[in-house]
Amino acid sequence: MNGWFLIIPVAVPLIGGIMVAACHMEQRKMRQSFVLATVILTSLLVWIAIFWFRGQELQLVSLSRSMSLTLSLDGLGCVFAGMVSILWPIASVYAFEYMKHEGGEVKFFTFYTMTYGVTLGIAFSHNLVTMYLFYEMLTLITLPLVMHGMTDAAKAAGKKYLVYSIGGASLAFIGMVFMYHVVGNATFTPGGLVAELGLSAATTQNILTIFVITFIGFGVKAALFPFHGWLPTAGVAPTTVTALLHAVAVVKAGAFAVIRITYYLFGTEFLRGTWAQDTVLLLAAITIVMGSAKALKEQHIKRRLAYSTISNLSYILLGAALMTPLGLQATLTHMIAHAFIKITLFYCAGSIIYKTHYEYVPQLAGLGRRMPVVMGCFTAASLGLMGIPLLPAFISKAGLMEGIVDLETPMAYIGMGALLVSAVLTAVYLFSIVIRAYFPGKGFDITSNQQAEDPNWLMKGPLILLCIMCLVLGLFPGGLLRFFADIAAGLV
Which of 434, 268, 336 lies closest to 79, judged by CA? Predict the structure, then answer.
């Protein structure tokens, strides 16, 4: 009966979001208090589940003899759920202030709160059909957030997001049907389900093809080339939404799903050394370089960060596709590091837009003097994403390099080249902003940014806290790395 607890963290934010709308919480203070209480309670429930109910299982619905909607929590689920549970309350406090100038706060916080529950449903999924259900729900529940402004651009972005997401889910559906047809079930099993089947050569090639299709299908939400176009377009949404999409929930759900199918369904013993592994490694390497190059060219600050997200998500996919213990450990490390760093960068960009309405890089000249806290946090997060020692992305990027050397295949070394090129481009596209902010040049008019100033503590506080957490992750990574190593040891 202990397994029944697992439904509570999923249900609380779903019910809480519905109550925001059903009770017409128009009074801002009451709504904010209710949303924050719901989110904090959910995060506490997640950590209770992590410490006391890991390994428990709860079948919600039996669909057939081999197919069911079932929740459980293993090590990988703990990583994803734990990351989300830490970031969501911080993001909520920031959103309370930011959404004042966007309007539609009741609608926003309804779907924003419900998204938390759906994301946890993905983390707690016991099998592919359960994860697929919540994965599709995540698309539908975040669509109103993408289209929040209901401008023509927002509607177009919502349509594009829907088409790409459903198209990717359709490819993933093919993989799900094939697994149930060939294997008989799609329960997440450490090491996978395929290697012990004794398949014929023809069936083996078919399954490798299905793996690539499924990898790409779930990879759409992780903005894998050539299905990345929805992510920069979604930047028309409020910054609180784009940070949610690019750092915490949606894109990380795609990366999480790719790790699940690679290590818990198809299995590295079956996939390693095949053309399918080379194919996904190449797609990830192409995406890394393409995203960084596009970020360097882009002048809109949120779209520049969006292309940066595209590149860094494929760091995660590349590490997963290495299919080695070191690769998986680095993948999980970068998933956490990128989440904390990228949400900080987006919230810095959102603070600038909120206070100045500046959206383009050339407009940010001299802001280092006017917005010292925001630009200080942006600088710290930029150093973190570049992979400077003592910050968490340095550990993950070094781990990826070590994993590539451990694999020793030509395609892996192509991935190493992509990482090196991306490292240089990342330094340029981020520090061109920082240098412009602090050193605007001789011809700069010091009176041009008179209206610029740091936001209040509802926005400034989360930025400072996120920077501190990034530093702690970089200085004291030992416990997390050991936990990730234990997860990898049981899968590869």
Answer: 336
